Structure formats: C-alpha cells, structure tokens
Amino acid sequence: MANRTASEKMRIIHDTKRPMLSDYIEELFDDFVELHGDRYFADDHAIMAGIGYFNGTPVTVIGHRKGRTIEQNMDANFGMANPEGYRKALRLAHQAEKFHRPVINFVDTSGAYPGAGAEERGQGEAIARCLYEFIELKTPVVSIVTGEGGSGGALALAVADRVLMLENAIYSVVSPRACASILWKDPKREGEAAEALRLTAQDLYEFGMIEGIVPEGQTNAQLIRNVGRALRDQLAELSAEQDIDILLQKRYEKFRKIGVFRQINQEENEGV
Amino acid sequence: MGLIDLFQKTRETSMEMKPQEDDTVKVVKCKGCGAELKAYVYGKNLYVCPHCGRYGRLLARTRIRQIADKDSFEELYANLAPADPINFPGYAEKTAELAEKVGMSDAVKTGVCRIGGVETCIGVMDSHFMMASMGSVVGEKLTRLFEYATEKSLPVVIFTCSGGARMQEGMFSLLQMAKVSAAARRHSDAGLLYITVLTDPTTGGVTASFAMLGDIILAEPRTTIGFAGRRVIEGTIGQTLPDDFQSSEFLLSHGFCDKIVPRNQLRETLETILKLHCGPKAKKWQVRRHG
Description:
The complex is a heterodimer of chains A (272) and B (291).
Chain A: H1 6-13, H2 21-28, E1 29-34, E2 47-54, E3 57-64, H3 70-75, H4 83-98, E4 103-109, H5 116-120, H6 123-134, E5 141-150, H7 151-155, E6 162-166, E7 170-172, H8 176-184, H9 190-196, H10 201-206, E8 212-214, H11 220-239, H12 244-256, E9 261-263, H13 266-270
Parallel strand pairs in A: 3-4, 4-5, 5-6, 5-7, 6-8
Antiparallel strand pairs in A: 1-2, 2-3
Helix pairs in contact in A: 2-11, 4-6, 8-9
Chain B: H1 3-17, E1 27-29, E2 36-38, H2 39-44, H3 60-67, E3 74-76, E4 80-82, H4 91-102, E5 108-115, E6 118-125, H5 136-152, E7 156-162, H6 171-189, E8 194-202, H7 204-207, E9 216-219, H8 230-237, H9 248-253, E10 259-260, H10 263-278
Parallel strand pairs in B: 6-7, 7-8, 8-9, 9-10
Antiparallel strand pairs in B: 1-2, 3-5, 5-6
C-alpha cells in the first residue's frame, strides 16, 4: 500500500463511501453542538464547526464538509468554502482560545471556492487572516488532512501545532489537473503532474511538513478509530506543554524552517 | 519583412523583459494603445504611458529607484537562489535561464532604505521572474525581512505582484504563505507598521497571505488583484465577468484596500504615512489606566 501511485490515492479519497466530517464527528465526539455563522454575512455550509467532548475533554471542531448525495454536496458546495466559511472558522477558533479548548481541524477540500461572490467578499483576505490568527492562537491546534488538501483553502485550516495526514490523503499547492493544463497545456497529463508535485502523505512526511501519517486499516470503522487514537496522542503530547509561549514558539519554528534554497555569491546574482 | 523589422521585433521582446534598463532601446511601443514612446520619456513618466495611462510593469530595481531616497538602498539576502526541492521537470533550467535574463536570482528584492528620511525595510516583487510566483526564496527573503524589521523596530513596505504560489516547488511553495504571514504577525505584535502596495498582478497565494495583511493596503490604479484566476471563475459561474472585476477599484469599493495611489504620488504618500508612524513628529498617545 505504500507503493500506491498519487493517482491511485486520488481515486481512493474521492470514494463517497469514505468517512467524511459528519462521520468523524458522530463517532469521535460526544455532545457535539454545531455552531453557525461568521457574524458578518452568512453561514457557509462548506465549513462545519462546533463544540463537544473528545475523550471527555471539551474541544472545538472545525472542518470542511462534503456530502454523499448530490443534494448534500450542493448544500456543502462540494467542500469549497467561501470567505464566510473561513471567517466562521476563525470566530470559533478565537472562541476556543477564550475558553481554553484545543482546536481540531479536519481538512478535506479541493480548494477555496473560485466564485464571483467569493472575490467580492475577500477570499484572499479571509484565508490570509486564518494564517495570521492560527499561528498565534493561544490554545493547542491539531489538523488532520483526511482526503484532499487543496491549496490555500486547505492551508487556512492547517496552521497547527501538529498536522497529520491519512495514509491515502494528498495535500498540494495546486490540483494536478490545473498544474498540467497551466504548465503543459494538457490537462490529460494530470497523472504525471500528480507524481511530479510530490503531494502524498509519505512525501510530506519525508519533507518534514507533517508530524504523522495515520494508517487507514481495512474498514471505515478502523479508519475512524485510528484517527481518534492519533488525535488523542497528539493532544496528550501538546497538553503536556503548559507554557503557551513555548507552544507558540514551536509552532512558529515548525513553519519557519520550511523552504529549500541555495546560497550563491552575491556577484553571481547581480547580473546585468 | 526587412531586416529593420526583424530587428525591431527583437527590440520589442527585450523591452518586455526589461523596459527600464536597456540603453540600446530608444523607442518603446505601449502595449495598451500602441503609441511609440521615446524610452527616456517613458522612463521620466515612471513607465506610465502618457497617451493612454497604461502602467508598465517595473523591474524591482526600477521601483526601488523610484521610491527610495537616492543611494539609500542596501540590499539584503541577495545571496539566496532557488533550488529544485522536488526535482520538478524543467524547473532548474527555467530558473537558471531567468536569472541570466532578468539579472535576479528569484522574484523579490529585499533590503533597507530610507523613504523621505524614514528608515524602512522594503521588499519588491518582480513579475519578470516567473510572474513573481512565490517559492522558497521569495518566502525566505520576505520572512527574513520581517524578522530583521522586528529586531530593529523598523516599518516594512512590500510591493506585491505575483501569479501565486510556485507550483514547481510543490508544497514548499504553499507553506511559504504560512511562513511569511507568521513573520508578519510577529512584526505586527511588536507594534510595528506594515504597508503593502498592490501592483499588477497580485493573485493567488500572495493575495491569500501577506498582500492582504498590511496595516495599510495601497494599490496602483487599474491593477489586477484577486485570489482565483478570472477564467477559473468564469468557468465556475458560466458567465463573463465585468472588466473591472478584480481590479484595484473593485477592491477599494468592496472594502479590501485603503487607497488607490497613482504611481507619481506613491513616493510622497508612503513618505507621509511612514512619517505619521515613525517620523520626528510621530508620538504614541499615552493611555493610562485608573486604579
């Protein structure tokens, strides 16, 4: 299973029988209360969020919502959030900070919604604000990419102390299809792009961008149990860190260290 | 087609690459209205077409020359150059070729300068290098710039333009959005001023990170600024979008930028704002709590 190609993984994560946010919430959280709205404009059904108990501890849960049927998917806009979705996420993240609850983010989106209204209401600003706020959120944050981690729309919910990915999940700067059509003018080469982009959980773990890969097991029940166990372990480790400044410093350094570049002689760079 | 025409074609191409610094080019054709402009007139007019008002895209060093006090710019982190972190087909060749052509190792120039006498950290993105897409080098240089400014208590001014994240660096590029935003946040938490100037085009991952995080967001007129690409949106909604969609004027009317500033007023506008925060007359109102 470790040698599945990126394209095979993409087929697996698009299987509608695969667990989705509502299944994780149902199985892993007790007394879940869904909370709605960004308090500015609307309630975005592409983001589902609320509070509940996780292994007896109150937590805030935020995630991308998808559906199984076409109606459910239309309602959830296929998991593609508008600015008000990210603003709802941020509102509830700040609420979690106030009440000293950890935040658990479930990431599964092909990307932020590319619509006219989204641009009018500041899609870029909404995502930027998530990055800017989650990095200094004074409570532990764990994110798990359960299916598709699509670009900025995924990153908005993945600035966290710990980022996990399911074994078959992907997380990419651009969809392989868009990459192939932009760079090679040929969307049919998406399989090739999927390999070239290095977007699997195994790739990201190797690059030091995520803290763990969660095995999926044979059944959905097993998969959800594994997710629950991984989240529990990460939160246990994080709660051992009592000093919030140290937690935030580590979170900063985790993102700070990412990047690969060369050092050259200055003269070489000055050119003409 | 005669030899002269061929030659002119070459000249036009080289104008595209570096309209500002090629002394051999005496005449420039405006890409907006087609008017033939004397290169030095165009330059004197800050690379704005005097006939149709079209804004030419600037090289980073030209922008710095227009904005910074004379000879005050000191470049920082010029020794960083792109690697090829995911061995993406053709990427190493592409960056090497552009480094030669544009005379920059990557798409941003960073450093310290004075603007109206105010010491300022400045970052200028340059669309001539892979449409100023953000990879590890752009992310690292801007992050270092914010960290330097935080340490020295200096304001930061960033001129943004970008096609978005640099997909040839895979996830290394996406995560630069978080890295730069984190450094901008620390700079802000230290009570320091950050101004962004949005220039054409500012899109994708740069819009969805530090471009939208300035305390004050300025924009050049008629600039394209947005998150998703226009054609992608048109494909999604099945409609043609109005011309001014995702323009700086559109941003201003929807409340996402503070002010549109013509190029010939940018310098003094920045100077005024910087002085209000960091000039000799800038002082912090002292608030005292009772009890």
